[in-house]
Amino acid sequence: MDDELFLRLVGNATTxxxxxxxxxxxxxxxxxxxxxxTTxxxxxxxxxxxxxxxxxxxxxxTTxxxxxxxxxxxxxxxxxxxxxxTTxxxxxxxxxxxxxxxxxxxxALTTLDLRECNxxxxxxxxxxxxxALTKLNLSVxxxxxxxxxxxxxxxxxTYxxxxxxxxxxxxxxxxxxxxALAVLDLSFCYALTRxxxxxxxxxALTTLDLCECHALTRxxxxxxxxxALTYLDLSECHALTRxxxxxxxxxALAVLDLRVCCAITRxxxxxxxxSALTDLALDGCNxxxxxxxxxxxxxALTYLDLSECxALTRxxxxxxxxxALRDLRLDGCPLQxxxxxxxxxxxxxxxxxxxxxxxxxxxxxxxxxARRRCVRHPPSELWVLIRDEFF
Length: 391
What we know:
The protein is low in regular secondary structure. The chain is 12% helix and 11% strand.
């Protein structure tokens, strides 16, 4: 299109939507003269192989959408001149191999979406200069093997998605500097072997997803420092052999998913310190032979899944103390204690049975019964306990 005609048609536009123009191969240099333009949508322009350098002259541009521009191999250096840009969508730009260093000049950028940029092998160090960035999505970047150390400089970052980055083997120690980070998604990072000790410095982290990190063998001891963590997904971490004792320090944790963690044989005794835990999924933990006595301290627990725990033959007596427990799943467990006749009667019957066998409680009742003559006016609840247990 002639530059003059182009300006006559769209010269005063604030939004230019060319989404789905699959035969569009280039944009005119006059693009940079659209002084009022705030939104430029070029998504699904399959034939677009590049952008003019004049792009950097769009001083008012806040949103640039290049999603599914599958022929786009690079971005112009002038990208960094877009001083007002807050949102940059580059998802499914499959031919994009890198980002310009000038990316770090985008001082107003809050959202950077790089999902399914399959040819992207790395990110520029200038990434750390994006002081306003709150959301970074790198999911399904198959060729991405590492992240720059400058990642830790993203002081405003609250959301980091690295799911399905199947070549990613580790994370930089600088990760711990992301003090605003609330969500870290590392699910399906098959090659990830470790997490940095600095993980524990993520004081704002509420969600940590490590689902199907098949090569992950251990978690850092600093895990327990994640004071705000409410959701931890470790399902199908097949190589994970144990959990750190510091797990019990996660006092805000509500959901712990350990489904199909085939190599875990035991859980730390500190598990009982998770006072906010409501959901505990252990189904398919084939090597798990027992549960810690401290399990009975999980006062908020409402859901416990132990189905297909093929080595689990006994439930701890302390499980009877779980007064909030409503959903207990035991399908496929070769339990010998409690007996099958009790299990068939449901959760309430199991809790009564286990509580009756709880030695620690019996000892307590014995002490109370022995001292009952010394208690002039014991609470009625105490007399009921003593009467039911011993008389």
